[in-house]
Amino acid sequence: MERSSGILMPIFSLPSNYGIGTLGKEAYEFVDFLEQADQKYWQILPAGSISYGNSPYQSFSSFAGNPYFIDLDLLIEDGLLEKEEVQSKKWMKTLDKVDYGKIYQHRFDILFEAYKRGIQKDYDEFKSFVNEKSKWIHEYALFMACKKHFDMVAWSNWPEDIRLHKKEACLRYRELLKEDVEFYQYIQYLFFKQWNQLRNYAHSKGIEIIGDIPVYVAMDSCDVWSEPQWFYLDENNVPIEVAGCPPDSFSADGQYWGNPLYRYDAMKQDGYGWWIRRVDGAFQLYDVVRIDHFRGFESYWAIPYGAKSAKDGQWKKGPGMSLIGVLTSWFYNKQYIAEDLGALTEEVIQLVKDSHLPGMKVLQFAFDSREAVNYLPYTYDRNCVCYIGTHDNMTCKQFFDQSPEEDVLFAKQYLGLNEEEGYVWGMIRAGMGCVADLFICQMQDYLELGQEARINLPGTASDNWEWRMKKGQNTTQLAKKIAEYTKRYGRSCHKD
């Protein structure tokens, strides 16, 4: 990875007229902004369909795209929707927050109208798409059709025959719900059509896309329902142990995530075929894949299913290079980022070294007195990615507004921060100027926004994944300022 920089900006955080950021006009304008700002990468978080809680890290599928991202104005241009019927819906309460409730009420009804008008017109192209995605789309569409049929309850509460994915039941429901199955396939066709057009546009501007692959999948997902043999479930497909993390300085009780754990022994015997398919799906969306919770491949926190607290868990050994080596050799010409944050034991550090993947350094952690790991810039090597903060951290302004006084003082003294430049831009300068090959900054930090713009607060279940940039905030003036810093510290994409 050459010396460069990028901006972390989730798709859902883009402005739009319909309650959430999409793959439409504002996404193209953000690509233009990245080009003007002399950036190489756009990091977007996972682009998958979201489930309960709205987290992009808890998806109904490891392969399907988020239908909420399908741009309705583009469907109007394609003749699949009427402008009046789209505008007749009440999409949002505010422009600076995603209103998931309103979107859930209206989005699929509108997309069903597009399906009815487009399925015949697009039939040959649609069928070709379904054949191309046949490894996952048939099961996904059946899963979603069944969820709709059963009032969106988790598959673990479906009737036993379909809950256990019995062949006869799948055939029966596939016929019973034939129209809905085709509908869910069609909206994936629409998503990937818009996605590929946007990605091609980004490439034409010299911009590459970084996306995440969560280490775990949601229990209420097509992945677990259709292929339970790869997960640590009992004979009734009920989890035996689930994922989380132990108590630490940020959470006294640890975190109970509830994702099913993998049967790594069975996966290894199969040559890690499930993981190969999953990573292949990710690279069909992204140019660079950030592997979330990379330390979980060395060892992971296993909590008995139904335990009252994550404190009841224990560490278990992960697959390590047995799996990572397969993925990096199978996709030998692809780029990864290892999210190696968390409890960094010597074994985890060694796994990152053995993998040769760039790990992550978070500048905020360098000045956090609760954080035992040293993230001060003098400790970095080139093969890493420097962030001021990730989607799980405070914004940079919030860090200076709300951190302990001694932490803020340490940052000011160490980085030589001053009011004339501004503390936030001083932190940006430190990231831009460090030795790491890649520097990523959240858009909120370039906008110098505070607590109101935080993306996610780990361990909480509400008010996350909602921040949206207001239309017009990504100005030409801001792009020029970012470009000046980028060029000054040798991260320019356009070498003279």
Tell me about this structure:
The mean pLDDT is 94. The chain starts with a strand and ends in an 8-residue tail after the last helix. It has helices at 25-36, 72-77, 83-87, 100-118, 123-132, 137-149, 160-163, 167-176, 178-204, 222-226, 264-269, 273-283, 321-330, 346-355, 363-366, 396-402, 405-415, 423-433, 443-446, 476-488; strands spanning 4-8, 41-43, 208-213, 241-245, 255-260, 288-291, 299-304, 314-317, 335-338, 359-362, 384-387, 438-442. Helix 1 crosses helix 20. It is globular, with a radius of gyration of 23 Å. It has 496 residues and is of the alpha/beta class. It contains 20 helices and twelve strands. 40% of the residues lie in helices and 11% in strands.
Q: Could you outline the blueprint of secondary structure elements for this entry?
A:
Elements: E1 4-8, H1 25-36, E2 41-43, H2 72-77, H3 83-87, H4 100-118, H5 123-132, H6 137-149, H7 160-163, H8 167-176, H9 178-204, E3 208-213, H10 222-226, E4 241-245, E5 255-260, H11 264-269, H12 273-283, E6 288-291, E7 299-304, E8 314-317, H13 321-330, E9 335-338, H14 346-355, E10 359-362, H15 363-366, E11 384-387, H16 396-402, H17 405-415, H18 423-433, E12 438-442, H19 443-446, H20 476-488
Helix pairs in contact: 1-20, 6-9
